[in-house]
Amino acid sequence: MAYVERLAKEGGKDIKAKKRRIELHLMPFFGQMSLPAISIADIERYKLVRLAELAVRGGHRVRPKDASKLALTRPGTVNRELAALSHLLHMAVEWGWISHVPVKVRLLQDEARRIDYLTTEECRRLLDAAKADDNQQIYPFILIGLKTAMRRMEILRIRREHVDLAGRTIFIPKAKAGMRMQPITGPLAEFLEGYLAALPKDTPWLFPSPTSAAGHTTDVRKAFRRAVVAAGPDPDRILRHALRHTAITHMVQALVNLPTVKIFSGHKTLAMVERYAHASAAHIQASLDRLEAQYEKKD
Q1: Cα–Cα distance, 206 to 196 (Å, whole number)
Q2: Of 8, 46, 116, 263, which is most buried with the most CB atoms under 10 A?
Q3: CATH topology of domain 120-288
Q4: Rounded distance, CA 164 to CA 286, Å?
Q5: pLDDT tens for the chain, residues 1 to 299
Q6: Whole-structure pTM value
């Protein structure tokens, strides 16, 4: 595939994900069309077909023409595929393959996207369950996730030299928005000090796996689900990314200013952080009510 090959040579990002989306979904649908021939109608038809496929996978019997029921599906998956198509079209122009972008790729509306997160009590129960699990890596994985909002692979790729205990930071060389320094709390730094000391001296990884080609663990799905089940929350609702949602939501609920939350979470823009503020509106209002009550007492 010429697009993926050239993107790899030029140091493009998320190449594996783009390749997968193109091969599995975009090529089967658009493969017989030339890039300049792609129209708005084609893209709208693609949206309906993919949403219907995802609905069926989720257990819903939905036909592509029955658009009213397609809200049962989550549009985020389709939006990532559309973003890959949009990037392909723009790069094709930059590389001189086509003269202009033939169509503006509009994403699906995702305003109703739910943010699933854990309460502080659920966090405590999850950590207790993880500590009791046979998998010795699931507790540090969950603890780091809850304390830093780092993404799954950002955590699993941590190397010894990335952890600065004195400076209380973790270096993330391949973050989604580019390399960054992740601040960590004092208690987490203390935990990591002991955890690092207990690891085999010859491993550079915090989550080593001798059976993995990467040298480190790449999947904690089963252990994570066991811990969630043992802790009580719905395991179909609380997935691994909920750790990140939880950490960010709790910061917003603590009334930390959004630019600081953005630095902490590694989001590209403030707009991406603001949805956590919207999701926490009731909690924030309750905090303001308590603050107002304090003023009234002083009067």
Answers
A1: 7
A2: 46
A3: hpI Integrase; Chain A (1.10.443)
A4: 37
A5: 789 888 888 888 788 889 999 999 999 999 889 999 999 999 999 988 888 887 765 544 444 444 444 444 567 788 889 999 999 999 999 999 999 999 999 888 754 456 788 999 999 999 999 999 999 999 999 999 999 999 999 999 999 999 999 999 999 998 777 788 999 999 999 999 999 999 999 999 999 999 999 999 999 999 999 999 999 999 988 989 999 999 988 888 777 787 888 878 888 777 777 767 655 555 555 555 665 676 666 55
A6: 0.61
